[in-house]
Amino acid sequence: MSLQLDACTATISVTPDDENPKSLHNIELEVTHPELGHIGRLSGIKILRQFCGTRFLEVLDEHSQELQTFGSDIFDKNGRIRPWLVEEGRRKGTGCWGRELDTGILIYILNMSVDEKYRNKGIGSWMVKKLVESPHVQKDDTLVCWPSPTDVEDKAAWTALQDKQISFFRKNGFRRIGRTNFFGYSPDPSHPSRQLAADADVDAQGKGFDMEDLSVDELMARYPLHFEVVNILGPDVSNIIQAAYTQDPASIHRPDASGFTPIYMALSRGNIPAVRKLLQLGVNDDLANSDNKEGLTPLEALESSMRSGREFSETLLGQWGGYSDDELRCEFLTKRAMGLPLVSNDEAEYVKKRKWGCTCGVCAGGWLSKRMRFRLEGEAGISKDNMEMEMDYFTRGEAIDDPIMLSYSSHIPPHLHRSIYKTFYKGYQSIFEAISAFLRTSDAPLSVASIASTAFGPGIDFYLGRGGKYEYALDAVTHAAEEQSELGDGTFEEMYEDETEVGTEYTGLPKCANDLEFGMVRRMVGLDPQLRWGPYYGEEDDDDDINMDDDEDDDDDNMIGVLSAGAVPEFLQELLRRMPQGLMSPGPAF
């Protein structure tokens, strides 16, 4: 019998992911026919970035290599689109995608399959249409796919099948994001990608370059200089480059089959002796060349390598140790040769200032930017004032009945809640005041030690004597500042980006890549990322339930934080939990 699409039924199920149930939801769309039974299936992942925070890349990496590649190619660790995909330049592609990719839910199509005897009958397009029309996809969301055949070993057959897959998705309104391998679809019919004809879309960046699969011996024979600058990192490489140049001056400019020049390879490798020598011999014209498989200039290749190393450390190792000196020396020499702005004209000073990612040149310690300092100072001051208004909640000589009444008790571990007397809370408040004063009056980096040496005021001795820590206030301030930043609800930006309301007090400060690096700031001030920090609401107020390492003594120092045990409900969730049953229902997830 002939297949009638109108007779088919699309059943969609959405289930939380096992590893990250809040951030990732599995989507399964199954197509059935009343007489033919199952005929097709689409599977995907719904990515809810609002629950990823700064762990966006980490969450995707925990799911699969495919999602990790997608995430790192398109987005940063905060789930924001990479700047080169929206700024002018070759990597922008058609430019039909922009900052709208920073918002909305991402629906990543992992796999589509149609039973062989029912293929080429429009079922694939029908599945995409049904998914888009479902309540699981909203106007501001984006569908994403990576056309990439599986289980095909022959290169020609693989390429032909990929071209067919790309044609299918373009026919259904998907357009390439920049010059990456990924395609996006916007449910919004007015979106620029929906106005772009399929034949006006661009190819991926590597298209047209010979992807050679050469042995080590073949590489050495065909591209000896490229091989040397990648594999010889010591001073001997300078003599090798000089010898090659003496024999053939064009050798230092000659690209390989992928379009990579020797200076490109040297910078990608962070080979400082090779970079110095090549620049000395005159490869400045090659520094602007992006005609290669990656579409990158040599400097962009270096920056890409530095960024990848940082993201790997932050995502998989949980801690980044800063850029290497050799990477930064390479960056300094290249930028100077290109006449680009530098945070310092002295090489050693440049390396020191850029170690932790500073781009403004005035970060305290190389990591605490002026804008971050302003945020933290303001948050600490507001917190101190709010705490003053809460002092009336206390009864003299008694601990607070319900700590949830206090705005900042959520960053005091539950085992200390029985110690929250008014004097204890006064001491806690005094530390917030000390943080605000230090940030306002000093240009030095913030740290536990700096606050411990400057804090004074009523209740501090009582607070510390009962187990309180300076770290708890630093935890509260940095957490609240991040929650109010554009990485959270954006209330800080709403207030301070409007110069007519508050003047240029904030907007007049220099911008820096470190302006939103809350994770690094927390680590630098002394909050160990391996320990559990607040907010603690939702955990039992029972010392026995605190998840401590069995090998650690139960002393004050080890109680600064507890080892991470997963997500903790937020303040409002705790309030809802305390409401009488039946008063309020959370409703379905979708």
From TrEMBL:
One of its GO terms (molecular function) is acyltransferase activity, transferring groups other than amino-acyl groups. It comes from the Eukaryota. Residues 533-556 are annotated as: Disordered. ANK repeats lie at residues 258-290. PROSITE patterns: ANK_REP_REGION, ANK_REPEAT, GNAT. Residues 43-199 form the N-acetyltransferase domain. InterPro entries: Acyl_CoA_acyltransferase (IPR016181), Ankyrin_rpt (IPR002110), Ankyrin_rpt-contain_sf (IPR036770), GNAT_dom (IPR000182). Keywords: ANK repeat. Gene3D superfamilies: 3.40.630.30, Ankyrin repeat-containing domain. CDD domains: NAT_SF. Pfam families: Acetyltransf_7. Residues 538-556 have a biased composition (Acidic residues). This is N-acetyltransferase domain-containing protein.
